Amino acid sequence: MMLLMTCVVAILLSDFSIAKDWCYFGCENSLPHWGKHYPKCNGRKQSPINIDTQKVIKNQELASFELIHFSLPHTMKMLKNNGHTVECELKAGAVGVRGGGLKHKYTVLQFHFHWGGKDLMHHPGSEHSLNGHRSPLEMHIVSRRSDLNDSTAAKVQDGFAVMGFFIEGDKKEKEKEKTTSKVWESFTDYLQKIPRKGDKVRIMEPFSMHQLLKGVDLSKYYRYNGSLTTPPCDEAVVWTIFKDPIRIGRDLLLRFPTKISFDNVFRPQHPLNNRVVYSSAALTAGHAGTAEHVLQPPTIQGP
Ligand SMILES: *[C@@H]1O[C@H](CO)[C@@H](O)[C@H](O)[C@H]1NC(C)=O
Ligand SMILES: *[C@@H]1O[C@H](CO)[C@@H](O)[C@H](O)[C@H]1NC(C)=O
Known about the structure:
The chain has about 300 residues and is an alpha+beta fold. The protein folds into 2 domains: about 1-35; about 45-295, Roll (Carbonic Anhydrase II). The chain is about 20% helix and about 25% strand. The chain has helices at about 1-20, 35, 150-155, 170-175, 180-190, 210, 250-255, 255-260, 290-295; strands at about 50, 55-60, 65-70, 75-80, 85-90, 95-100, 105-115, 130, 135-145, 160-170, 200, 220-225, 235-240, 245-250, 280. The strands form 2 sheets. Strands 2, 3, 4, 5, 6, 7, 9, 10, 11, 12, 13, 14 and 15 form a 13-stranded mixed sheet that branches. Strands 1-8 form a two-stranded parallel ribbon. The radius of gyration is 20 Å and the shape is globular. The model is unreliable at about 5-20 and about 285-303 (pLDDT under 50). The structure holds 2-acetamido-2-deoxy-beta-D-glucopyranose (2 copies). One 2-acetamido-2-deoxy-beta-D-glucopyranose binds near residues 149, 151 and 152.
């Protein structure tokens, strides 16, 4: 009996430790195997997806966001290399978001990045794409419903709201005139201090969220229901993908796959299945489907 118990405990423990340990490639629980240990990764509302702008449906309720304290300096706390990405932790409860068609207020927790190979221009690493076009990098600002905690948020479709931004590279000369570049230069300077898993560095500069998002029209976006793009892949995310990319110098883009000891950290795309992608009120037809689509509300299929 004792022996049996020990075996059961050992199996449970080993299963748990394997399940905790995942990677994109080069380990046992790599991308094609995520679903074995994290069954939700095999779901039908997974992220990322490609957005086909001819098929999106305009939704007048998708107005501008109210971004709370996005202009406030010193809201970023720590930049961490967690072995899958670099993640910037924000000061607890400092920054929030509501509006933009969201039914609740959300608290911003962190933002992180997905990137491709060392030759980023030829091996892009954005997770989402627009009409099949992928960008070198994608940034995700992750927020959680202010009335929930991590475990309760994971159980509802709108537990988390993630804002996704494409990041494109500009030639250096063009970039010099823009102030965005200076902030991104200082921000990406931190990358060389955290090359390996477990490394972290405190952010001392007075950066604000808005400084990183310069040049993006925050009223032009796409909206769909999806999942976390890393295990456990909970289908608990209201996704907002902004149409305009953030533009930074190419040399700054390249710091991600070269200063950090890993690259190609993105999940492949998943089928839309019977989901709908909406476009915000500020996106004009042509960017957002045909007039026919604009006039007719979607028929949502029942379960
Ligand atoms: C999250 O909230 C639920 C319900 O309020 C509570 O039962 C649970 O203990 C909380 N979990 C954590 C990790 O705080
Ligand atoms: C997401 O799912 C919820 C609940 O099923 C639904 O009310 C909402 O309209 C969906 N949103 C989108 C953008 O499809």
